[in-house]
Amino acid sequence: MSRGSPAEEYRIPVGRATTIVDVAERAGVSKATVSRYLSGKSEVLSEATWKQIEDAVAALNYRPSQIARSLKGGHTRLIGMVVADVTNPYSVAVLKGAEDECQRAGYMLALCNSGGSPEKEQLLLAGLRAYRIEGLILNLAGPGGEKVPEAMPADLPVVLLDRHLPAGRFDFVGLDNIAAMGEATRHLVGNGYRDLMLLAEPLRGVSVRIERGLGFREAVAAAGCSGEVCEVDLRQEGAMGAALARFMAGPDRGPRAVIAASGLVTLRTVQAMQALGLRMPGDLAVVGFDELEWSSLVGPGITTIAQPTYDIGIAVVRSLLARLATHNMTEPRSTIFTGRLVVRGSSAPAGAARHVRPAGEG
């Protein structure tokens, strides 16, 4: 095929993506000439050549690889984000804020889900490094997080989300969990509940759960009432129902209440209560963690500790972009948000609990 005249009959084999070589063949020019066109160097190309390439690009519906072009220029504009559970309402809400902030700053967000597996987390981190991410947002999977610093290049900016490491070189964005749990506990105690239980997924190796457990224990001790932390493996069918049944069958120490340590635990708690026929708050008062869309719709409405999840998503990206701008990897910084108690009927004062009606009833 001669250079200089369009190859009108050039065809791409079925199933193969169009390449820059295909565009060059179709336009009847060299690959280097197409590269100049894609770089916008109109001054070095004749009007006729520019038109030939433009027509070839349109005819073949060619879309240049943004990653390949970014790598050539030394920047991918790609930020990696690994979360422990992509189905967790918290993760979804934070992702919205993070994605919006990335878009405003001209970056793309590559989301990965570790599913709570440290082994999968390590594989995902290796994969993201291969894609030349410019920074990483990491919601740690759980035990084994101490291996993360070893897996990441020293010059890669990393910001930890929600779950932090005991010591390290990374920035952190999250909630003041001890204060938030203390507020939830004091609210129940102030409403007359004397027998309290914190329901949480296994605490080991997950800082946010450990902190919420600590906040609960401190508040219960200060109030001088009964309180226990119950770790529930939500993967085991019936585990939540068994935990609640055991709690309800215990010694009568006064009005009972539970605090669910996360949005997912809140959901499982409500489901188990319905299966056991427990009235809320007549039999058992409830405070949930995370403000969910259905919180106001279940029973008399569920009292929650709301997190500013969208703002947290924005903050974690801004923290990462600040690192990218300064390239200063010393002195890790923390951005801590405050929870907000949203009071509804599920935690009504113990004396009035039996008179609380479900949401929507007159």
Automatic annotation (TrEMBL):
The HTH lacI-type domain, residue ranges: 18-73
Name of one Pfam family that matches: Peripla_BP_3
PROSITE patterns: HTH_CROC1, HTH_LACI_1, HTH_LACI_2
GO molecular function annotations of the record: DNA-binding transcription factor activity; transcription cis-regulatory region binding
SUPFAM superfamilies xref list: lambda repressor-like DNA-binding domains (SSF47413), Periplasmic binding protein-like I (SSF53822)
CDD domains: HTH_LacI, PBP1_RegR_EndR_KdgR-like
InterPro entries in alphabetical order: Cro/C1-type_HTH (IPR001387), HTH_LacI (IPR000843), LacI/GalR-like_sensor (IPR046335), Lambda_DNA-bd_dom_sf (IPR010982), Peripla_BP_I (IPR028082)
Keyword annotations of the record: DNA-binding, Transcription, Transcription regulation
Highest taxon of source: Bacteria
Domain HTH cro/C1-type residue range list: 19-56
Entries under Gene3D superfamilies matching the protein: 3.40.50.2300, lambda repressor-like DNA-binding domains
Record carries keyword Endoplasmic reticulum: no
Protein name per UniProt: LacI family transcriptional regulator
